From TrEMBL:
GO function term, MF aspect, one: oxidoreductase activity, acting on the CH-OH group of donors, NAD or NADP as acceptor
Keyword entries, A-Z: Oxidoreductase
One family name in Pfam for this protein: adh_short_C2
Listed NCBIfam families: PRK07231.1
Record family assignment: Belongs to the short-chain dehydrogenases/reductases (SDR) family.
Species this protein is from: Aureimonas endophytica
Highest rank taxon of the organism: Bacteria
Protein name (database record): Oxidoreductase
Length: 254
């Protein structure tokens, strides 16, 4: 037994949506834990760059649109060329959108499904051959508590369904590749203070509702999610696969 099992020394990670929010917090703690990371998102973020560089972490940022079906193969190839292997894939990139179902147009529906569901499948499919060759690997998907329970505001039928799909893809793939020493897990965050949700926290109508609906009475931080991601991706979680870990301040206990 050793605390070293919580570290990622020598591991190589590919993190989608790594330029801000939860993805950036994961990149930060992975860097501290000794991993090298390829981060991807559509836009570069100079502040994130300065933060990670300032801490001396070994990482590479590649600008890419995850909804382009060619992106996952390209990013996995880049990771292998840059660092020689891929130990961890963190499928974190995602978008949220709400609106009553009769008004929710196809464009928004397709954006939710391609970003939150199809790219998770495609990145996983692209990473698996290298993980198989290596004889080990970890895939970590970022789902949501809203894949378990309706959240506030309501009218997030497509988003909630997309995250439930992520949870079920996690379990299905975990069972498919478990015998090959490849683990697949997910985290299901509740209300986390990031750009995605910040509009709600500052909204005088939603803010008290969100707090009251969360037994812990506060929002979570990206760092609190990243801590759990680190655990699930580390050797310390070597017998954990097919799990969806709720990080929601107790929201879904109600
Ligand atoms: P942010 O909006 O801060 O981050 C979303 C990330 O995804 C950004 O890095 C963004 O970069 C990237 N992204 C979005 N679309 C694309 C795309 N087409 N191609 C490439 N990258 C893309 O939100 P969070 O950090 O909160 O979200 C991270 C994950 O956590 C998401 O999957 C979200 O659904 C999930 N989640 C968040 C919760 C919360 O309360 N915040 C709760 C539950 C789950 P860019 O826009 O530059 O491309």
């Amino acid at each position: 037994m050793s605390l070293g099992q919580f570290r990622l020394d020598g591991k190589v990670a590919l993190i989608t949506g790594g330029n801000r929010g939860i993805g950036l917090a994961v990149a930060e703690i992975f860097g501290e834990a000794g991993a090298k990371s390829v981060l991807t998102a559509r836009r570069d973020n100079p502040e994130a760059d300065a933060l990670l560089k300032g801490k001396g972490y070994d990482y590479d940022f590649v600008s890419a649109d995850a909804t382009d079906p060619a992106t996952p193969e390209r990013l996995v190839r880049h990771t292998l060329e840059k660092y020689g292997r891929i130990d961890i894939l963190v499928n974190n990139a995602g978008v949220a959108s709400h609106g009553e179902t009769p008004d929710f147009d196809d464009e928004r529906l397709e954006l939710i499904l391609s970003t939150n569901v199809a790219q998770v499948f495609r990145f996983s499919r692209a990473a698996l051959p290298a993980m198989r060759r290596q004889g080990e690997g970890v895939i970590l998907n970022v789902g949501s508590m809203s894949g378990f329970a309706t959240n506030i505001p309501q009218h997030q039928v497509a988003y909630n369904g997309s995250k439930a799909a992520v949870h079920m893809m996690t379990k299905s793939l975990a069972s498919e590749v478990a015998a090959e020493n490849i683990r697949v897990n997910a985290v299901a965050p509740g209300y986390i203070d990031t750009e995605m949700s910040r509009g709600g926290f500052t909204n005088p109508e939603w803010d008290p509702v969100w707090r009251n609906a969360t037994p812990m009475g506060r929002y979570g931080s990206a760092e609190e999610v990243a801590n759990c991601v680190l655990f699930l991706c580390s050797p310390a979680a070597s017998y954990v696969t097919g799990s969806v870990l709720l990080i929601d301040g107790g929201y879904t206990t109600r």
